[in-house]
Sequence to fold (238 residues):
Amino acid sequence: MPIPSNVENLQRFSAKNIIYQTVCDWIITGVLRPGEKIVDSELAKRFNVSRTPVREAIQILEGQKLVYVVPGRATVVADIDTTDIEKCYRTLAELQALAAELACGSITDQELEQMEKTHRAFVDACDRNDGAGAIDHDNLFHETIVRAARNEYVEEFSRTMILHIQRIKYHYFHCDRMRKISVSQHGEILRTIQARDGAKAKELMRSHWICSMENSLRDIAGSMQGHGGELGADVLTK
Fold:
């Protein structure tokens, strides 16, 4: 099991939460690949904790369908099922469309400033061809909107769907043209939320994710053709 060596020991933090977040990041970014076995004793040793918080973290990952547990045998990183891509995107499109509509009635001036700052950083990362930075600022832009909706259920379900979509992106493809599209769409969404036009914000957010879905499916189909029907697994995405 390939565990990075630069993981700090846990001290004042919740062991379960830190282990969950760390292993989740490893799965999303491909450090732990589909089919990789997760050995709880190795994780416990690496994080200098008992097996209990490791198992609790694994239970969360299992609930999010990022791993599956074979009783009495092993915990395994789940495969990326390309047939679920459209399901993930369409579900997220509706969740975040609702979040954008709700945010128009509850977002604070401070959160609007955060959105503006994040959007500028996103544009800058795209201009510099910084794929990882663009992903980070893209995520923060959407997270700010979802939090501003003040609906914990939308926030929780949206977070779970985002995990799967991020994993798809990191695992399969890199799409420069989508950055330009996202810059334009983010700008429109920002201006609409600033104007507190809930109906339009809802429409724009839904269209944003559907556009991303269509381009993702197109690029994955192209990747499959280029690899004789098998998707490439080592290419960073945005």
Summary: Residues 198-226 form the longest helix (29 residues). Strands lie at 37-38, 67-70, 74-77.
